[in-house]
Amino acid sequence: MSSASPAAAPDVTNPDVVLVVDFGAQYAQLIARRVREARVYSEIVPSTMPVAEMLAKNPKAIILSGGPSSVYAEGAPRLDRALFEAGVPVFGMCYGFQLMATTLGGTVDNTGAREYGRTPLHVSKAGSTLFEGTPVEQSVWMSHGDACSAAPEGFAVTASTDVVPVAAFENDEKKLYGVQYHPEVLHSTHGQQILEHFLYRGAGIQPTWTTGNVIEEQVAAIRAQVGDKRAICGLSGGVDSAVAAALVQKAIGDQLTCVYVDHGLMRKDETEQVEKDFVAATGARLVVVDAEKRFLDALAGVSDPETKRKIIGREFIRVFEQAQLEILQEEGPEVAFLVQGTLYPDIVESGGGTGTANIKSHHNVGGLPDDIEFELVEPLRQLFKDEVRMVGQELGLPEEIVQRQPFPGPGLGIRIVGEVTKERLDLLREADAIAREELTKAGLDREIWQCPVVLLADVRSVGVQGDGRTYGHPIVLRPVSSEDAMTADWSRLPYEVLAKISTRITNEVADVNRVVLDVTSKPPGTIEWE
Ligand code: XMP
């Protein structure tokens, strides 16, 4: 029935945008985040974007990211010299630095002299725009094959390494700067300071960007987009949808209806958090659909992980669309907008640094005219996850929602190895609640990325409790540390905390007589068991 078309969301024009030109690999996102940590608004653009288009965005500065290529490789990305002649301050890093050097007439040698990892940097001009106030010897993160041996004319060489004669150059007159290394990674001990020096001293930008401004700008933008029409927002219990809904609620109040599908696979107290705390904090109108039975019926007899995922996804869309339909029937064609918690990394990763997300929901429920299309409202599309949390905090959302660790959409359904039943879910909910409580008490929430608690429902082992022999299920603890869930390592939790969790779970959760710790990194293991 309903489909959602990419919205003509009014992009908030920020007067102080810094463009990060993406030359590949994963550096651009990190640089963009670091620029925002310096309280300057940044956006990522592809290196294929014509320079005229970049300049049309009226950037206050441009940063050229690193990338996997050698400037000598065939087909390696190039840059139009015009970029350096427009009077816009430019900072090149790694590949961006070498590109700057070759484009402006410096020398980059394909010497095979490689540097990789932590490298000592010797600063030769201590009071320079980039290096002022930082030590003459500092550790930086290198990752390159080619090396710059002569800076372009008009540039001062301000740092070197044992291998690279020109590891940094600066031209204050033209406001062009570059470093061979990666200031954006934490291993470069003064990297953030050097980036800030470029932004504040080199480019003369004031650090004024805050998430507070984002709220004001987005509220205005949402009002302009939605007008006097109505919007629907699906809440998942996660941070993104909650913050998106709270922002839209702030902008258009009761013109927004939130829908929460309770699939019965949530953790203990999480549905209540949405039903009570979210509503109390935002005053949002909320429709809760109790679909537990429907989901459990659909999952009956199913053990295969992928089949479970498919069933949960399918049922979710059906229930959500049914709710949409009812709201539409009640409120009429005024309902024209669908709120989504799309984040900036989603936009960048889907290839559209400046484009719109392309989301279409399936056509499953009959009864709604086919030509009804919801326009998307995506108030978080410029934000990174940590910024979303800050916005949520400023909007007064409960800490439990704002600081919530990642939790999979299919919920506990994929943390029961075996068939999903109500009894097993209740049992897992108890064990999970104990683990979460103890980790929070021990102050470990920020240290771990997430800690799936898994019930091996198809496994039994012998135990002894009181005077009797037991034959119960094991619970697996899977605490992991990670930056982005793509790779992860198992968290080295203190033994006392593990002991406490284990004792409590085996004492307090019936039918569980063993607690085991998953000590597998990702790869080869995934974070979830299913
Ligand atoms: P894996 O298990 O692949 O998980 O290492 C990586 C991250 O993704 C989460 N995850 C999911 N999230 N729907 C979601 O919304 C899913 O089906 C799903 N599967 C895994 C997982 O919790 C981890 O953060």
UniProtKB/TrEMBL annotation:
Residues 209-404 form the GMPS ATP-PPase domain. PROSITE patterns: GATASE_TYPE_1, GMPS_ATP_PPASE. Keywords: ATP-binding, Glutamine amidotransferase, GMP biosynthesis, Ligase, Nucleotide-binding, Purine biosynthesis. Pathway: Purine metabolism; GMP biosynthesis; GMP from XMP (L-Gln route): step 1/1. ATP binds at S236, G237, G238, V239, D240, S241, A242. The active site is at C94, H182, E184. It catalyses: XMP + L-glutamine + ATP + H2O = GMP + L-glutamate + AMP + diphosphate + 2 H(+). Catalyzes the synthesis of GMP from XMP. Homodimer. This is GMP synthase [glutamine-hydrolyzing]. It comes from Streptomyces omiyaensis. The lineage of its organism: Bacteria, Bacillati, Actinomycetota, Actinomycetes, Kitasatosporales.
